[in-house]
Amino acid sequence: xxxxPKNKAVQxxxxxxxxxIYLALQFFFKLMLDIASLKELLxxxxxxxxxxxxxxxxxxxxxxxxLYNYLIQKGHHVKVxxxxxxxxxxxxxxxxxxxxxxxxxxxxxxxxINNAEIIFCTDFNNLSRINEMGEVVRQTGAIKIMIDHHxxxxxxxxxxxxxxxxxASAQLVYEFVVNIMHEKDLLSKDVATCLYTGIxxxxxxxxxxxxxxxxxxxxxxxxxxxxxxxxxxQLVYDNSxxxxxxxxxxxxxxxxxxxxxxxxxxxxxxxxxxxxxxxxTGDTEGVVNFALSIAGIKLAAFIVERPDKVKLSLRxxxxxxxxEICKKYFNxxxxxxxxxxxxxxxxxxxxxxxxxxLPEYKKLLIQ
Length: 367
Ligand code: 5GP
Ligand code: MN
Prior knowledge:
Elements: H1 4-41, E1 47-52, H2 58-73, E2 77-82, E3 99-101, H3 106-115, E4 118-122, H4 133-139, E5 143-148, E6 159-162, H5 169-180, H6 189-202, H7 213-224, H8 229-237, H9 242-255, E7 256-259, E8 264-269, H10 271-276, H11 287-292, E9 299-305, E10 310-316, H12 322-329, E11 333-334, E12 338-343, H13 347-357, H14 362-366
Parallel strand pairs: 1-2, 1-4, 2-3, 4-5, 5-6, 8-9
Antiparallel strand pairs: 7-8, 9-10, 10-12, 11-12
Helix pairs in contact: 2-5, 2-6, 5-6, 6-7, 6-8
The protein binds guanosine-5'-monophosphate (5GP) and manganese (II) ion.
């Protein structure tokens, strides 16, 4: 009589463990090799482009300019190229004067991209997020390094510093400089100022769930390195134009719709209203958070009629997957609790479509 099953089970377990250890070792050695080659790559001056997603926010600009201020200290020739313009509230950031907006001079930008040896892609992981620049970046022979914290990265990069549990890409730039490059001494005041801005804005001023103890330790390091936390907060958040504040008042008084049966609140804005309040890039940032701040609300939407398309910004609480709605219905994506998308349909139809989607998610919304 054979008692094979038991022995076999033990044997299988051993093989399973050995395979697991083998895979872990392989992964570890590949990581070590990658880190060593990355360090070697950046050991001598290179022509570098840093880019970030279209309509860059605080984390996009903070990551890109933080990296810029780090790399120039190492003697690299660095150009930050943004696919579009970005909010005026970030124009005080160190290095801002050297940023080239792609659409301002496409010919020059293409030449710089095509001439680059290395391209850093910060705070995005899909080339569609940098508009028409995407194909230019894709076809260059430059080494591409992605530093990002969004879900489902596209496979266009050569190196990747990627962690969806990071509260901001700026946190990953810090980890790149300190833990991968081991150059904490290059966390200058300028680097620290930019990275602090990125972490502050993407963590909702240190209150969103991914703001861990580690994030607070990193932020403490950045303050030690010279980031003036109170001043940065003021420069970003207490810098509104009068019209922006009046626009916010208009949104909250006249445009907020609450759907208690779905624990959802939405604010919708027409193109005429954007013109009426002289709304410029960045002015609509954060409006959606007011809708989410109502007690009991689990999903908030800000739907705005831009000149070329209707843009949606969704925010959610807890486990509710705002990114799933954006991905499934609005050609977008993002994080579970903060996501966005767009539509070529009319504002009216998009609002209607959004409302008709809600019953599908009712169970999740009211639980
Ligand atoms: P916001 O609502 O501030 O525009 O974007 C919130 C989050 O969703 C950000 O993390 C942003 O990267 C992501 N996001 C916004 N719009 C899009 C989009 O059209 N596509 C994808 N994939 N992500 C988006
Ligand atoms: Mn980010």
